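Q: Can someone sanity-check these two? First one:
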Amino acid sequence: MALAFHGRRYFSTAMANGGAATYTAAIGRASAVDAGKFGEKVVFKWVRAPILGVRYSSTLTLDEKKEFDSRADGGIKTASTKLEAVSYWGVEPAKVAKHDGTEWKWSCFRPWDTYKANLSIDLNKHHPAVKFMDKAAYWTVKALRYPTDIFFQKRYGCRAMMLETVAAVPGMVAGMVLHLKSLRRFEHSGGWIKALLEEAENERMHLMTFMEVSQPKWYERALVFTVQGVFFHAYFLAYLLSPKFSHRIVGYLEEEAIHSYTEFLKEIDNGTIENVPAPAIALDYWQLAPESTLRDVVMVVRADEAHHRDVNHFASDIHCLGRELKDMTAPLGYH
């Protein structure tokens, strides 16, 4: 009876450089062992298995191809490295096209994520701060606006970027808390998890758009790190303690955002801020006309903020009635 020991098994995510694997085995010495009373000899063949590489954390292999091009001016050779990522699991990005059949060039969102903003929404709605909780939320937001006005003054492009880095936090925090709550209680959320995450994603797209219009300075980027870190932890704690207070704060924050974007439009109309063509990402995300300008972008962003205002005041009202969000159907796709 012959037994072959092939050693520990190693797994490779792919073969290096896309070539075929070469299987070699070095057979060591064979020794005969007396099997004792059975009167048989068992031969052990020690075989070293081929090691194709140890898999660590990545599921992708990179096939690095270096191409050397000789240029006419001086004959200097330059190396351009082309990295091709081949998925070990066979997952390849889907090819997406626009409605007119042309290639979709954005990876951060897809055609089915785009929409036309509802510009007819009432921008003047306001939740009266009557109860103590509402007054506390209202004046908290007013206190936060004061240093913002001093720092940015009339630089509304940079102000919009800073505003969106903060505005995208509450939806993510609330969605995360509701997600974990749904898992703990084995219950549905009424669609509110998705609705709040949609809000966070929409706010992030505002930021990606204004990044094409105005680039923040280094100290503004440093300020974003500080403000986002403080606001995330503060809002997370507040949401755990009182969701109705937290949603009310966001409702008032959105009211302030509407005011800020209205002032932004005034500066554009006065000629203080140049009405440049709308960024390409804005044209596709909001399905704007090709000739759209920065003014059109601010208009649709302001309409989005008005919708977020309504959703968060609505969520706070549900909690004020002693109900939970899951008891009311979430306003999914409310733009």
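And here is the second, same format, sequence then tokens:
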Amino acid sequence: MYRIPPSVEIRVPSPHERVDWVVPGWVAVYELMLRDGMRFPIPRLIRDVCDHYEIAPSQLMPNAWRVLMSLESLGSRHGVDCELGEVLFSYYLKEHDVDKGRYKLIARVGRAPIVTCLRTNDRGWKDRYLFVRGDLVWGSRGPGGVPGHWKSTSREFNKVLPSGLIAEERTQQLLEIVVAERDYRVALSEENLKASGLWAFVAERQGTPALPLDFLLPILRLRHAIHVTFGGCELYPLTPDELSLVEGMLSGKYSIPSAKEAKQLLKGATSSSQKEKKRKRGPLADTRVVDDPEAYKQSKAAASATQTGAPPVSGSVVPSPAKSAKKAKTKSSEDQGKILVGFPAEGSVYSDPSFVNEVTEGMLLPADRRRLTEIGPVKTT
């Protein structure tokens, strides 16, 4: 899908890693960056801005990398040299007000933004990232002073580089490009990215489609789990059922959402199901209230007597039978199919990431136990 060159090594983060952590030799990249058209090497202007402010590429907010890639695409295709000076002539960096450590690229007051139609509703992108490494990640220029992990910049956000009239003249040339072409979606279209040279190292599509990242990530997670648990044994060949699943993934029949998306989908489905059940069932019976209130003890006794068929005691609040039945049914359904796993109270993935593997080592889930039982003992020679 993203046609990442074979020379770029990729891996998903392990369960205890975060995007802002120090991972020597690796660079964090969001899937949304790839979806917006970023390819390797990382575009020159993203590299130059990160080098100037001494921040990691993953610290830039989505619209920041869209602006930088669009400027590079526009400048390359229209013969305008767009460098760091031109970027900071029209824009300045600002730390996010709430999400500290992430930075936005804001158009300067009194100067028209060069790139238009930027999005404001990106959601769920922070959970979908991977680590990459290899010479082609940065290209021939190398990373320079770009850190591999998150840092707080010590540079002045609002400072304009001393580019003078040259930056102003080049900026004006970019603004003279028709507005429709300055739409980031147009500037970052596949056709324009190829024409600009940003996709110089992207191979043309072959007969076999590339694996979508939604499918690639679970496979990489599986390989990592096997490596951690068994010390790097090789995967067995795919079974016919698994091959069918692969074909379904490639054809778009199946999709694997991220953990956050799956949770939202489950929550939405549960909410819709509950609403549908409530509509079919109709309103619940009204709670019965007897006029003269009495002590809590009498109220509790009345509720107990109601469950056994005795009449309610005067002054008590009797819960609706429909509500009681619903509560009991919900509790019963929640307990079904659960397996409780205990972890030591002092355990911490942050201070000792290996403790999870130690605790779960040798743990065999019921479904796996049944399958191994069916297979029977393994004969050795």
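A (reply): Looked at the second one. Residues 207-211, 231-239, 284-293, 312-318 have pLDDT under 50 and may be disordered. DSSP finds 16 helices and seven strands in the chain.
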